[in-house]
Design goal:
This protein is low in regular secondary structure. The chain has no helices and two strands. Strand 1 and strand 2 form a beta hairpin. It is elongated.
């Protein structure tokens, strides 16, 4: 299952299109392969309280020119 497949998951978590994590922080590094202008960053999440699936408490986006030093560009 890909973290980035350009397919939006449905409202049903049972389809297998979503990844779920509990009690851990996730660091996802997306390497664009070369310097590119970034105009916006987005992330999609599913909440289904009846199934105990909740939005993350916080999401932060970081950018890096060298893959070593990252700068927070929004939380």
């Amino acid at each position: 299952m890909a973290l980035i497949d350009f397919e939006k998951g449905s409202d049903d978590f049972r389809t297998g299109a979503w990844q779920g994590y509990e009690g851990v922080n996730i660091d996802a590094i997306i390497d664009l392969g070369e310097d590119q202008s970034i105009h916006s960053l987005t992330a999609g999440f599913l909440q289904d309280e009846r199934s105990w699936i909740f939005f993350p408490v916080e999401v932060s986006f970081f950018l890096s020119d060298d893959g070593k030093i990252f700068h927070n560009v929004g939380t």
